[in-house]
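Posting for a labmate who doesn't have an account.
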Amino acid sequence: MVKASEICRGFECRINFPDGISKVLVPERMSQSRVCRGSHGFVKKLLSKFWGLNKETWNLAMNEPKKLIHGFKVGMALSLVSLFYYMKPLYEGIGGNAMWAVLTVIVVFEYTVGATLSKCLNKAAGTFLAGVLGIGVHWIARQFGQKFEPVILQGSVCIISAAATFSRFIPSIKAQFDYGVLVFILTICFITVSGYRVENLLELALHRLSTIAIGSSICILTSMLFCPVWAGNELHNLIRNNMEKLADSLDGCIAQYFGCDINSNNTQSETSNNILLGYKCVLDSRDTEESLANFARWEPAHRGFNFGHPWKEYLKVGASLRSCAYCIKALNCTIDSGAQGPDILKNHFSKCCIKLSSNSSAVLKELVVVMDTMTKSPKIDFKVSEMCSAVQEVQNALKALSKQPIANPTIISLTEVIPLVTLSSLLIEIAGITGKIAKDVNGFANKA
């Protein structure tokens, strides 16, 4: 008898139903091969993602080794605080509360010294205040007798927690003491609720405070003594690098628009990358600047940054840089729109616009030198005056546009003139913002 597999080999087996519908019979071996191919594709995709993750991790470690070192610093701090469990004399000194020291290290150890100091001091202050207030509430509650003690404790927890939670919405408290208020709420609840069943509440509070002090001290020492990452230095470098990026981005935009190469060693792809990476990095840096400035206020003097360094001035400069970045973004959008105007108009404006762009980027690059030395550059006033004269030339070109034959509406339409007028106006706006940045940088350089 002939087997079904032999009949179907090389042929298509089909079943016809009475209603006119037909189906193709698929051999079982074919379905198994599909499962194998699907499993092979899944494993291949999984391995590809794993390889991509390894590659991303390796690139991050090579490009930013400080983050890799930070991981080892956290491990070192946890190893040191774990000695309070492994060494019997230390364990007997603080008892089973040693785990609070371990948890403190995990929670408060941050990337920068300022962030670590901020969290440690907030945690210590919040715990201390909550401990004192909690013991006071317990003493008052016990004066009313055992019957009313739970009522007074619960009422105090409700009122104190509500007031502390509401204070977190106050901008000045949220900016610097939000974590401390959160720890305060946690500790007041811990002492008020669990202390009801504890005989020696003072001892419990002292043990809690001592373990937090131990964990915070280890975090601060490890963060400051082993390859410290200062928030102030990170903020300074961020503002400095943003100035360089904006200068390169501005040069790249004008070079792309007028079809010239301001820096002869740049290729077309490098110019496009400078345009995109330049202003986009500046636009996305606001939150980072604010957090670094907040943490820098907690740090001691370091690397030439003395006590009372004007960290708030960096935020003003950063805001001005973002305003300049928005103008460059609008400039880039004007270029990408394709409406660039006729060549005769571009030739008319190219010289003065390129000069203004070069002078504005030269001022930004000179401000980078001011940031490096923290002293006013003798060249900055001359470069700013050159930029102002270039602004005047562009303004004169705009005024003369309506009087020139090239602007005759019978020859060139208004829509063809608008792109160049927009470009010139944006360059004048960028020059004005650059002058403000120069004034701000020189101002806080003198304060520093």
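Reply:
Got it, the structure tokens are right above this. The CA atoms of residues 195 and 204 lie 8 Å apart.
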